[in-house]
Each structure stands twice: as structure tokens, then as C-alpha cells.
Design a protein that fits this description.
With 76 residues, this protein is mainly alpha-helical. It is built from two helices and two strands. Strands 1-2 form a two-stranded antiparallel ribbon. Strand 1 and strand 2 form a beta hairpin. It is elongated, with a radius of gyration of 15 Å. The model has no long low-confidence stretch (mean pLDDT 79).
């Protein structure tokens, strides 16, 4: 949403690479130990899905589409 779609896509790809062999995420990630904390963590997956949705919305706007109204923006 800040115009840094390339950075966001790279970070998203890095996050996807942290998932385990069946695509699940834990609550936390430690570079020394990998996935730690509560496992699987639903809130981590919710953030992953929301990020994918927002990346797709930015791509749509970049290609001339209409921006979408998101739940965190007030309706006027």
C-alpha cells in the first residue's frame, strides 16, 4: 500500500519459505532453531492470507483496476 510492492513480494516469498513441509507456520521463528512457539498458529496463517490478498489488490491497482475497500478503512 506504500508503493513498495517489490519489497513486499520479496518479504512474502521469504515468509513462504519458512513454512514446514506441509505449509504450516508456528507462532515464532528463530533463525537458529526454525519454527518455535505454538504450532500450528492460526494467527500466523491469518496474516499470511491477508498479506497475499493485499499483494493481489496492489497488483490489480497497478494494472489499472479499482482499489478495494478493506475492513480497516472507515466508510464515508
Amino acid at each position: 500500500m506504500s508503493g513498495r510492492e517489490g519489497d513486499a513480494e520479496n518479504m512474502f516469498a521469504r515468509l513462504l519459505a519458512l513454512r514446514n513441509d506441509v505449509g504450516l507456520l508456528a507462532e515464532q521463528y528463530d533463525p537458529r532453531y526454525g519454527l518455535i512457539g505454538n504450532f500450528p498458529q492460526a494467527l500466523s496463517h491469518l496474516a499470511l492470507v491477508k498479506s497475499a490478498y493485499l499483494l493481489q489488490a496492489c497488483e490489480r491497482v497497478h494494472h489499472g483496476g479499482e482499489p478495494e475497500r478493506h475492513s480497516y478503512k472507515p466508510v464515508s
